[in-house]
Amino acid sequence: MTGQTSTRPARASAPEYQGALGSLSVNASLPEVLDEALRAVRAAERTGDLHEVARCRLAVAEACRRLGRIDEADRAWKASYRAARSAGREGAMAWALWSGGTLARQRGAFRLAYRLLKLAAEAGERGGDVVARGYSLAGLAETGRIQGDYEAVARLHEQLLAEARRRGEARHTVWALEGIAQMHRNAGRFDEALALFEEAAETASRAEDRRGWAWALRGIADVVSVRDGDAERALALLSRAEEACREIRLHGALAYNHKMRGNVLYRAGRYGQAREQYARALGEFRAMDEPRGTALARLGLVKSEARLGRDAAGTAADLAALRTSLERIGLLHARELVDGAAAELGVGPLPEPAGKGPAADGPAAVRPALPDVGAEALRTADPEGLR
């Protein structure tokens, strides 16, 4: 389905680091990026260069977002947008909107994420910034994939992958491979998922993309745990990925790594250790205001505690509350996920909440039409997005 790579991917770059920050590596430590970006912002403000202010504020926003400093990230992307608008730079406006949309997705605000990313793609097209447009299209695809709207976004993922292969762009290739692999994994097509995760890891390694490599190892660990029951190999892979996350200070990726470690331990019947990992991840997700990760870590924690002897009534009540939380975030598979946990633990069927209304961010109601991607429509795409 994915074809063969036609061009050897070049070394990964970080096009979201622009202007005075353009020489920063994709693997630069995020505290280092933040320090340099703040110095660059002050220098640009002294000279009155609003375009440079916008570009440096973008780096501040992205470093803060990835570090889990959500309020600072929110202020920074908005400041970047205001500076870009004052400078009349559509491309810089697109980048700021992309950053804001990515932050909204991280916070579980999918309706806002779709709106900002759609505006970003339009601004990128008007401003002739094909890279910003590509990031924004990928952000739309990523948002739909996270919500479970696979039918809507599978084609866009494939188109983005084909374009990445044609141009030999490593980060774009890795992002698309991992997204497609995750859809296969969630559909139970484990062999296909593993092959794509392994290709993503190899591509990221050759391109010296530590971020993409860490995410790919997490995906491989998940598959070998659920398909093969090989907990030790999965845990070893997660340990290697954790080293990369700590090296670059990828707080969100680290929290998802810990949640996956809980999943692996739970599948292996090591419920006490699983509970510890889920509790650890829960604290990390709460610290960065990440509602999707928070709910998924809570789900693992509830399941582990049930296996360790918690009473059925308490477990059922917590699962019912979690189902409501996940549905309100806008995840299409929330009911299946939680009801399946209840059946597994023998505490179902769960009660329905009183006055149940529609999900706050249901995908069908808020997702804009997703475009086809022509050969010249974009140049790259966002691998960081939120898995």
UniProtKB/TrEMBL annotation:
Where is region (Disordered) located? 348-387
Where is composition skewed (Low complexity) in this entry? 353-365
What the entry lists under Gene3D superfamilies is as follows:
Tetratricopeptide repeat domain
Quote the Pfam families the UniProt record gives.
TPR_12
Q: Which organism is it from?
A: Streptomyces omiyaensis
Superkingdom is Bacteria
Protein name as annotated: Tetratricopeptide repeat protein
